């Protein structure tokens, strides 16, 4: 099914994006018209990225097949999983932010329908470039922050050691720290220092070596399909970021809904006035 959805998402969005790019050159230079076509293209690009993500997941599923359980740890800590997580997050956020701005643009166009909608071409280009830049930056930033090395103590899901069955995960991070510190005591940190570097040092002390082979399970390695970790436990340090993004996305949903409710009301108002006119009765 992922093959089919991914294929159709890529194909139909290409068929939608290309004509809209051509139509921008042929359309009258109006703020609402240019913004509308530009934002529709951005929505298409976001959906195109999601289609690429689905196709990649289908390929990975076919590649591992019945051996996935054996290679699960390797896959969840791989850079390929991280790239797919970033790709899916950028695609979904780009579509959502573009639809939000598109809804507001259409609402502004309906409200100001009786006013002149022609602007200086430079002004329109500045608005369009600004919107594309901001939407793209926000989408990319949300996706890439969990992989930033400086934030790994918040976003790394755990550490899996390749030469043993030991896995230190977020839920039992504190417990592992205390046990390792109690029995092996080789640490450069303190009881309040729960960084992953401290855990690594303790495990190196346990194995009496400085070259323990391990893999960090990144933020997107929470499940086999490498999606953004929206739902977390109350004790999870990632919860603040996940709740923040959920709040932003829910706010966008409210803005889109309210915008189209107002658009519908604005469109129905002239019809109601016409029906109430004496000549109509």
Overall description:
Helix content is about 65%, strand content about 5%. It has helices at about 1-25, 30-65, 70-75, 80-110, 120-145, 150-155, 175-185, 195-205, 240-275; strands at about 160, 165-170, 215. The protein has a three-stranded antiparallel sheet with strand order 2-1-3, sandwiched between helices. Helix 2 runs parallel beside helix 5 (about 120-145) and helix 4 packs parallel to helix 9 (about 240-275). Mean pLDDT is about 80; it is low at about 170-175, about 185-190 and about 275-280. The protein is mainly α and about 280 residues long.
End-to-end distance = 55 Å
Structural category? mainly alpha
* β-strand number: 3
What's the overall average pLDDT, rounded?
78
What proportion of the residues is helical, as a percent range?
Answer: 55-70%
Helix-strand layout with pairing:
Elements: H1 2-26, H2 31-64, H3 68-76, H4 79-111, H5 121-144, H6 152-155, E1 158-161, E2 167-169, H7 173-183, H8 196-207, E3 214-217, H9 239-275
Helix pairs in contact: 1-2, 2-4, 2-5, 4-5, 4-9, 7-8
Report a brief summary of the structure.
This protein has 281 residues and is mainly alpha-helical. It has helices spanning 2-26, 31-64, 68-76, 79-111, 121-144, 152-155, 173-183, 196-207, 239-275, and strands at residues 158-161, 167-169, 214-217. It is elongated and about 75 Å long.
